[in-house]
Amino acid sequence: MRNLIIAAFVLALGLFCVDVEAAPTYSFVNITNNNAGNAAIGEAQLFVELLDPGSSQVTFMFTNTGPEASSIADVYFDDGALLGIASIDDSLPGVEFSQNAIPPDLPGKNNVTPSFETTADFSADSDPPVQPSGVNPAEWLGITFNLQAGRGFDDVVTDMATGALRIGIHVQGFANVGSESFINNGEHCNGKIPAPGAVILGSIGIGCINYLRRRRTL
What we know:
The chain has 5 helices and 10 strands. With 218 residues, the protein is of the alpha+beta class. The chain has one domain (24-189): Sandwich (Immunoglobulin-like). The two termini are 17 Å apart.
């Protein structure tokens, strides 16, 4: 039984890891540097993946790979080929987001050149209580946008590379308190991190292994 569970988990994890090669995935760069340790944590474990659902849409999948305490509390978008938010997928237990962030602008937005200017209605934030409802380690958030007429998924990828589209996140919940702001790195880092599904499966797999260990000790 144990071997079947582990084999199934490894197979599923492999399938998700294949997806990361096809979907552009981007890391984040700190722009506030309120605390060097917190800045390093965010740059190491926070990512956004671009997914193509078709129908002239694009999905931004935000993940927190952990293990260090941190929580994506606000998400902001600056221009690009986007038309408007179509849906927010916060169906994962413990993650609750709504459109239009508070504060309405990315904290520390003037620390980059040109300054980060949030496009009207292109933001979302975690519902109260803010930190527990944010994207914590092993959690994810999906935000799907409709695209402007005549624009497609490839245009979004190009906009990310050129800086025509920038994504900002405000992060709280670090172990030593404090908060930091980050913007996406223009170059994607495919193959260097697990896909969002792999993060979820990883937490499930660890739970299965711990369960089996407990049974053995009983």
